């Protein structure tokens, strides 16, 4: 496991610094709180923020990816499958559309957000109250909200660097596996003892929380934090699979076919991004990449690097080296 020598820095930035120094690149930390660094080798200088915000990308590309509505429009124009849905600008407007979504699986999310903030998934929607509550939650994070068809399947994070996919992860929602003895609360505490887990992105994985979101999700499963799961039973604590909320990361780089990788690269190119995290839902990775088998639900302009180098399961993809390659600092391990 990589040791983060400076706890002020996010792990992705610390990794990039270490990889740079191994290449003889001079590194200056300009603002540790902002993870802002300067790289210098001979007369080649690059400024990097949070490991992936670099001169390789234009100013407009992150703004496109930040706006989920604009991103979907551009991807759809480039014949890339995205979820169907609408954008609303008020709670009342959303409530007027309730009948159109009744009985369906939907996702309600702020137009511009990261890390799964404000996102709610509702299955077989029947409750107008739950629907309104989800809409109000999303509006707490933005002035516009997207209501989309839920795309079934497994979610994968494709990290695109330059013209290639550098790594692919399947992200599993925060969970514990029962042993027939310990409560869910105790199992979370045990799992959180893993040195890979911490807080604030200074470690490869984040600690699992037991807050209102997790407690409510357990209640939907007729469970509480004091429930003792059966031996071998997996209990999920959240619907969303973000690593930032305690999810597990499993490397799938070699298991996903070239056609899906090509779609991720095409999506990044469509929005003009050289560094991009493409979140893709795939129903069956063994089937060809036709429109009925996948959908891109989001593009991320500041994708985490550390989750690909230190996955919960799988091998180190050395994506920090690929960033340095992209920035013109020679050819390291990353190809």
TrEMBL record:
Stated name of the protein: Bifunctional glutamate--cysteine ligase GshA/glutathione synthetase GshB
Gene Ontology molecular functions: glutamate-cysteine ligase activity; glutathione synthase activity
Superkingdom classification of source: Bacteria
Lineage: Bacteria, Bacillati, Bacillota, Clostridia, Eubacteriales
PROSITE patterns (alphabetical): ATP_GRASP
Enzyme class: ligase
Keyword ATP-binding on entry: yes
Annotated ranges, domain ATP-grasp: 72-328
The EC number(s) this enzyme carries: 6.3.2.2, 6.3.2.3
Keyword Nucleotide-binding assigned: yes
Pfam families registered for this protein in UniProt: ATP-grasp_6, Dala_Dala_lig_C
UniProt keyword terms in alphabetical order: ATP-binding, Ligase, Nucleotide-binding
